[in-house]
Structures are given as C-alpha cells and as structure tokens.
Design brief:
515 residues, 3 domains, Herpes Virus-1, alpha+beta, 23 strands
C-alpha cells in the first residue's frame, strides 16, 4: 500500500481491523460507542495474547534473574502520593477557540519539530540520489540548509525543555505563538492559555462516597512492582541485579485521545523494573536499550521503522530516558520507554510507608536502596505497530490484487487453515481428522465454503501463515498441499510431517532463538 496516502492507509487499518474481527469500537451499539475505548475481537484477542506471550517468554522465561508478578489494579491511595502521580501526573493542554478542539501543547510543538526533521530527511534523500559514495553524516554536518534546519530544531528544543522543567506554561504557549502553529481543524492561531490536567481516574471504595474513601485506577503498572519489591526479593532469594516483570491494564483520563488504539483511556502495559547496584545504572540502561531494540527487530518488520529518541524533559524520577520510536502511518511515535529511575520510587515508598525497602549486599556487608532501570512498552501500541506494518495490498499476475496481513507467523491468530478441496468423497472427514490432530498444539481454522482461491484470500487477509488443502490424492498417499501465505508457493508434504513443519515455522521458539 505504498502509493496510498498515510491518512488513507490508516483508515484502511481501522476498517480492516473491524471487518475481520480484530478490533471493535467499545459498546458500539450505543450511540457509536465510548470514545477512545476499544474491544479486541476474536482475532485481535489471539494476536494480542501471542504478542504478550512473546514478551513474557523473552523477558521472564529467558532470563534467570527476572521473575513476573500480577499486582492488583487498586492500590492504597498513598501509593500515588508517594509516586508523585497525585501532584505531578499532568498533561499541558491548550484549546483552539475557533474549532473548540483541545490539544496537548507538548505534542503540537513536537509535531512542528517533526515537520522540520522531515525537511532535513528530504534534503538528505535528494543528495543521496546525486552522489554515489554518499556520506549522510558528513552531509548533515556540512550542508548549509540542513544546518539551518537543525539549528532551528535545537533552539526550539532547548527553549521547550527549559519551559517544561520550570513548569512555565506561559512560555509554552508563547513558543506555540512564536512558531505560528495553527489548529489542524480551524487553521487559526486563536489559542487559550496552557493549563495542566491530571490524568488519573478516581473512584471510591465501600458504601459511602466521601474524600476518605477515594481510590485511583492505576495509571501505570510499575508501582505494583515497587511496593512488592521486598516481597519478591525475599521469597525468591533474588540477588542484584534482578528484575520484576508485569503485564496488565492501566487507565489514563486522556483528554486528547485519538489515533485509534495508539492513545486510549484503558490500555495494557508490559513493564519490567530491573533493580541494580547504585553506580551501575547507566551500564544497565544502555544494555536494556539495545536488548529491547533487538527484541523489536526480531519481529522482522524492518529496521528502518525504529529509532531512539532521547527525552528533552526528564521525569521527576529519572536521570536518563529514551524512547524506542516506531514509524506508524502517522509518523515516528513512542513505542517503548527505557528509563533510569534512580532510587526515587523505593525511597518515596520508604518515606510514605515507614517501611525499609533496602537490599542487603553480602559482598559489601551493607544495606542500601537499589537503583532501577525500567523498560515499559504499551501492548496496544505494539499491536498497532505490528498490524500497520503487516497490512499490504499486493498486485498479482493477470491484474488481480490481494490483501495480505504478513504477520510474523509465531504471532498470527491462526497458525494454519485446513481445507477439503470439495465437500464430498471423504475429503471433509480426512480434513477434520487433520484439524483435530493439530489443534492440540496450534490454533487452527477450518473452511470448506467457496472455491479454494477465495478461501486462500480470506486467510491471507487475517494473516494465517499456512493453508493445508486435502484433495483426492490425499486419500491415496496421505499427502496434502501446504501453501505459504507470503510466497503463495505450494508444496506437497506428508500428513505426518505437518506437525513438525508448523512447529518449526510458527512456534514462539522461532522468534526467541533470534534473541
């Protein structure tokens, strides 16, 4: 779909997701549903589970010093006071008075900078076509126009960083005014002042609603790890460095929730907090940056779709932070964050709880609060990155086209589909016996409706890596035709070889071994 405009391609992803049972708008039968909330359909739930399983196995099963937990969504409200979320978990918001649309002020500025970066990239691409032995780094550092663009970016970023660190919202607005940023809807610069908005949802426990019973829906899963740090360390007899991993739902009252499942109010995180000796955190920070990038690259979506982005403004708990960004249809955006959180969280929980959360180091014969390096990826964003990279429209011989979802086979909802060539002559019975044998170890689909060609197209569209066709020859020699989704090549194989073929091609081991 390379010739389609990014915005049109994104619409195709959304419509494809609904048409084939991946993602539905939540409670859609009521006034078109609830904004910025989505349900995963029958295929979406399988794909999401497979992504989650791959992350868990790579993080927990493959690392002897990382264990997993599942903490509660509800936590003692003081948890969020200690973590800083009650006082500092805010987004800077700004409204356009003409369109009545609300935006995150920081995103408006970041998108303006991204447009300048696009100009630099276009200059580099043009120059690369003119010269054979082109040195991109040299061109970026010497070309006058590129240097002017980069100087603009650096000046904006420095000014923006200073304003954010000082929480100077007037200056943030002034940056938007000075850059002449317009509302994408109205095209005007008629902006309100910038103000902070806390993102946490709150509710109450018990039968009586008053301030003493206020409780929060967790805005992140990390704090469940920190408050259980000592429980895990002692019961697991863990020695530094070690990690605690967790997946689960988190909730943020996003005012500017858009771009499908990229930014939602209810979403799922996959986080790992790695506890280390103070002074070694930067070494581990670099290690986890490269390790997590390698994990993403193992999916085979293309190395050019990923890049690192260092944070301009560090969170109150961090001394280093970077994002792994992915090239979504709407540009490079954050996919996973790697943060060096220092000892902030454990010390805050020590202070607010009155309980010691220290580690006794037998080598040093002393106790101290560990430092933490965090990896945090949004499962829904990861789902979208895989889906958008996999969806393709291909031209075939004879002028036909096909829609194919080239998912990594290990993540595909169905590993294979079984077809009887016709619904008679004993072919359905043999096909069903093959299906029953394989479904103990693989998610399988069975289809006997329409021509085989149409059945292939249906499976291509939902990402099934292999289609197994049972024909009359199958009755004679116990062989079947197996078709590869991506190449469309068909091979004749023995029925008793199918299990080993699918294991080799579609198991999570095939991805894990790349790590």
């Amino acid at each position: 779909m390379s010739n389609i405009k990014p915005e049109d391609f994104f619409k195709n992803i959304i419509s494809h997701s609904k048409e084939y049972g991946f993602i539905f708008p939540s409670s859609e039968i009521y006034d078109n549903g609830l904004s910025a909330v989505y349900d995963y359909g029958q295929l979406g739930a399988e794909l999401k589970k497979n992504i989650r399983d791959y992350w868990w196995k790579a993080m927990v099963q493959m690392n002897e010093n990382i264990v997993g937990i599942d903490s509660a969504i509800f936590m003692h409200p003081t948890t969020w006071k200690a973590s800083g979320h009650v006082d500092a978990f805010n987004d800077p918001l700004i409204d356009n008075k003409d369109s009545k649309k609300r935006y995150r002020a920081d995103v408006l500025i970041e998108e303006h900078v991204a447009k300048i970066e696009d100009k630099i990239n276009k200059e580099v691409e043009k120059a690369a076509k003119r010269f054979e032995n082109f040195d991109a780094a040299m061109f970026r550092s010497t070309n006058t126009r590129v240097k002017e663009y980069q100087d603009k970016i650096d000046a904006i970023n420095e000014r923006f960083k200073t304003a954010l660190n000082a929480n100077n919202l007037d200056e943030v607005k002034q940056i938007i005014v000075d850059l002449e940023i317009v509302c994408p809807i109205s095209g005007t610069k008629n902006w309100t002042d910038v103000r902070q908005f806390n993102l946490m949802f709150n509710t109450s426990t018990g039968a009586v609603t008053d301030e003493t019973n206020i409780i929060y829906l967790r805005p992140e899963t990390a704090q469940g790890i920190f408050v259980n740090y000592l429980n895990v360390q002692k019961t697991g007899r863990m020695k530094l460095p070690f990690g605690i991993a967790q997946t689960g739902k988190a909730f943020r009252n996003e005012i500017v929730a858009r771009q499908f499942i990229f930014r939602m109010r209810e979403f799922e995180q996959m986080e790992m907090q790695f506890f280390v000796k103070p002074g070694t955190e930067m070494e581990w920070y670099e290690y986890w940056k490269q390790t997590r990038l390698k994990w993403h690259l193992s999916l085979g979506l293309g190395a050019e779709k990923y890049r690192f982005h260092d944070h301009l403004k560090l969170a109150h708990y961090a001394n280093a932070a970077a994002d792994i960004e992915h090239q979504f249809p709407f540009g490079f955006k954050e996919l996973e964050g790697i943060h060096s959180r220092t000892d902030f969280d454990l010390k805050q929980h020590e202070q607010f709880s009155g309980k010691k959360l220290q580690y006794f180091d037998p080598e040093l014969n002393q106790s101290y609060v560990p430092y933490v390096v965090e990896t945090s990826v949004g499962l829904d964003r990861l789902f979208l990155s895989i889906l958008s990279s996999a969806l393709k429209e291909e031209s075939l011989e004879g002028g036909d086209t096909r829609t194919v979802l080239s998912l990594p086979p290990a993540l595909a909802p169905y590993k294979a589909a079984v077809f009887p060539l016709v619904k008679k002559d004993g072919l359905p019975e043999l096909a069903e016996s093959i299906m029953k044998d394989l479904k103990f170890d693989f998610m399988m689909a069975y289809d006997e409706k329409d021509t085989v060609g149409k059945r292939y197209r249906r499976q291509d569209a939902i990402g099934t890596p292999f289609c197994i066709t049972v024909d009359h020859q199958s009755l004679e020699d116990k062989t079947v035709t197996i078709r590869d989704r991506d190449t469309m090549k068909q091979d004749r194989v023995a029925i008793d070889k199918l299990h080993s073929i699918l294991t080799e091609k579609t198991s999570l081991q095939s991805l894990l071994r790349k790590l």
